[in-house]
Amino acid sequence: MPQPLPNASDFLPGPVLLLGAPGVGKGTQAQLMMAEFGIPQVSTGDLLRENRRNRTPLGMTADELMNTGQLVPDNLVNDMVSARLQEPDTQHGYILDGFPRTLNQAEWLDRQLVAYMLPVVAICIKVDEATLLKRITGRRISPAGAIYNIYFNPPKVEGICDVDGSKLEQRSDDTEEVFHERMKAFRSKTAAVIDYYRSHGGRFCEVDGDKPVHEVTHEIRKSLLSLRHHPEA
C-alpha cells in the first residue's frame, strides 16, 4: 500500500470517491481533479481490462469466469484494486471510478486504509432524473467527436455539426430504455454505498451537478476542503 499521506493541511485530496447517477458529470470532474492535483483515476473497468490484456493471474481468473458467463466477484476486484493502490502515483491520493460498488467493497476499502491518515471521502453529484434523461437522450456526436445536446446545446442546423458539416449521430446506448435500466442498476448497487458514507460522519457531502462545469468543480473543491478539515474551508 502507499506510504502514509502528508498532513491534510497541505491539502492533498487523499482517496476520493465520486458518486452519482449516469450522466451527472463524474468523468468530467474526475479529469479536472486529476489535472489540478496530479493524482490518478483508479478505474475498476480499466484494471479489469489491463489485467486480462496482460494475462496476469488475476486477469486469467477473471477471463475464466467471464467466459462462462459468471460475474467477477468482489474479492477478485478487491485484489486488483489493492495491487493498483501499491503503485507510487497513488501515495498522495486518487479518484476511485466504479469502486466501491457494494457495501462489502466499501467496508473492505476502509479496512485496507485503516493505518493511513486520510480515509476515503465520498462526494455525490446530484442532478434530477428528468434533466439526466435529457442529457443522455439528447446527446448527439459528430464523427470527429464534437458533442451537442438537442435540449441544452443544439447545433445551428438540426442534425449537422457546426464545425465540419458532418451528420450528427446518437449513440446506440443513449436511449430512454437504456437510461432507465442504468438508473435501476445505480439505485440497486449504489444506494448502500451512499448510505454507508453518509452514515460515517465527516466523510460525505452532496453537490449540485445541475450547474455549469466550473461551478460544480468549485463546489467539489470546497467540499474537499471541508471534509479534510482544511482551515480555508
Written overview of the protein:
- This protein has a 5-stranded parallel sheet, with helices on both faces.
- By secondary structure, it is α/β, with parallel strands linked by helices.
- The N terminus is likely disordered.
- 44% of the residues lie in helices and 13% in strands.
- The relative contact order is 0.18.
Summarize the structure.
With 233 residues, the protein is an alpha/beta fold. It has helices at residues 26-37, 44-53, 57-67, 74-84, 103-112, 129-137, 176-199, 213-227; strands at residues 14-19, 41-43, 93-97, 121-126, 139-141, 147-149, 204-208.
Topology:
Blueprint: E1 14-19, H1 26-37, E2 41-43, H2 44-53, H3 57-67, H4 74-84, E3 93-97, H5 103-112, E4 121-126, H6 129-137, E5 139-141, E6 147-149, H7 176-199, E7 204-208, H8 213-227
Parallel strand pairs: 1-3, 1-4, 2-3, 4-7
Antiparallel strand pairs: 5-6
